[in-house]
Design brief:
Length: about 750
Amino acid sequence: MQQGTLMRKVKSKSWKKQRYFKLQEDCMTIWYQSKRTGKTESAFSISDVETVREGHQSEVLQSVAEEFPPERCFTIVFYGRRGNLDLVAGSAEEAQCWVQGLRQLIEPRSLPLTSALVSRTWIRDWFQKADKNKDGRMNFKEVQRLLKMMNVDMNEDHALRLFQDADKSESGTLEGEEFVLFYKALTQREEVLSLFQEFSEDGKKLTLLELVDFLREEQLEDEGTEELAMELIDKYEPSETARARHVLSADGFLMYLCSLEGSIFNPQHRALWQDMSQPLCHYFISSSHNTYLIEDQIRGHSSIEGYIRALKRGCRCLEVDCWDGPNGEPMVYHGHTFTSKIPFREVVSTLGKYAFKVRHPSPGAGGRGWSSVGEDTCYAEGSWSCWPPAGQDPRGQGPWRCCVAESGSLSTTLQELKHKILLKGKKIGRLEDTLDGPGDEAHDVSDDDNGAEAEEERRRAKVRGTQHGSALQKDKETLAQALSDCVIYCKNVPFRGFQEARSHSRPSEISSLSEAKARKLIRDEGNEFVRHNAWQLTRIYPSGMRTDSSNYSPQEMWNVGCQIVALNFQTAGTEMDLCDGLFSQNGCCGYVLKPPFMRDEETLFNPSDPSSREGPGPITLTIQVISGQQLPKVANSKEGAIIDPLVRVEIYGVPADQAHQETKYIENNGFNPRWDETLQFQIQVPELALVRFVVEDYDKTSRNDFVGQFTLAFANIKPGYRHIHLLSKDGTSIPPSSLFVHIRITE
């Protein structure tokens, strides 16, 4: 159909407009226009699409479920914070045509992305943008306009020379492969070619032994280096002849450096690489605050999209605030505010679909994609009344199974909790009461208790028993027994001090602290806080004053071992960059093992005193910032404006390690800036350090504008010549934007 496919775009139960949708000939762009006016309303790129959902899998489509059958409905989900596009096709066949077609177009991004594939896509996108008259050819005036769009401020004579060299047909225009030649000349990487020639005897190729030398001397690959060199040649050398001779050309060398193996992020740490058999309190856990909100805390919109986005981002601890609704149906919203409400049943239905689908980064570009089924534990904080199913014993082998050691302490490991959903909430009585039946709480007097000490302990136990009885009666008056029985691992208890917790609390209990309370404890009792978190879970939540859904720094909470540091996932910024940076490792499963000195209940570590950490001394991190490639323009910048980029490297960790340094800015060059500057940092506690690379557009009269960033844990840094694939403010990839750096780590 020349006009495109006629479908309904649905925004609400009352807003349903007919629009024509059409995939452009480039198979990369979709536009749609009004049926009534014929005016093109919008267009989007296939590269903007994260996934396609079939049926009534959005709140909007659920609201029109009685009007339109699920087989005609589908939802296009975009990366970042852009809203979903809900559509209703004219028939089930038409819907399937679009769903399957879109999935085929976005599917290649789940495969390893070579630099060649990224470049081809990038070239095609730019050609479409610059070819104003859509004749498939580009004259020199259009090329000049393209250079401005691409952040390039180039001398006109030099640009004309590149244009004429690429115009093999001498037609005065570039088309097809001619434009590819022009683009390649434009993107010549002199710094990479110089490095290549340093190890190549003839300057044209790297022999197998020369490549091995480079991998050992510069990339610090010390195991199976010859086998790795063969693999890299087979994988990245574009010439069949060169592959057969076991040599690597300059093009193949560049493709390797831009690949997953050439990334700053250690590829071995992208998979599940940590010990997953430790107790739950030994892990940092990706956690969200008021997960249902996608805007502010007072009047913001509540949506199941908040849960979907958080879970796909690797979040393992969710918040479900449940309140009485009309006709006895529970609703989820921020109580005592004006936020919108969503039915509780929609929330649990969504969690059932997405709780164990985990995030996996797109290998080549360092961005986000999601696939496969995870095996991690999912936390839910709040009041859940529908699980376990009627008749199912919560103490058996169902979703709430856990085990208790003979001493009465919870010994369940993360590995044993796979595919389980744990509920955090209030509980009537003790965990043992749920497992063994109700009974009086009694102090377990050990065999070595004797004389006056034993008598004093029995007296204290009696007092605690009286207090416990009063609290138990209050709980019974306000909490249903069936709901109480669902709380196994995470009984919520008030925090009354570390000494009280050590004497009377259990590993199966958890306390929640405001960010202000946590900061005071960090300042006054840092070591006690670390010890406490070695055996019991602690949750930190944002101040009630953060009505705009802003975030506090999670780093200071991680410094004392707090496991559940809840953030507002809907708010982009440095805090969420740190969260994504920490949890992008270990298969993106949402669990990161704490360092050994934070898992020891008798540890002497205090983040305010780095010397209290047991282990090797401080290390030196040396970063040579060499160059940048195809950096994006600043959003909403003036037409023709070109950025003046600088790079800032920030270290987050214990107070002594907090630091930042930056390069000079490069004037009018966002396409291929060269800095060649060296930054150096001393890191006292590398096990807790995160490194954030930020690119900004320098402005001498106002605050610099954000261009891109990439954050990772220090433990995941791969030394050598590496590319850093930049992410947007929302955490989505922006290929092929990257930095080229040289990393050295010394003790």
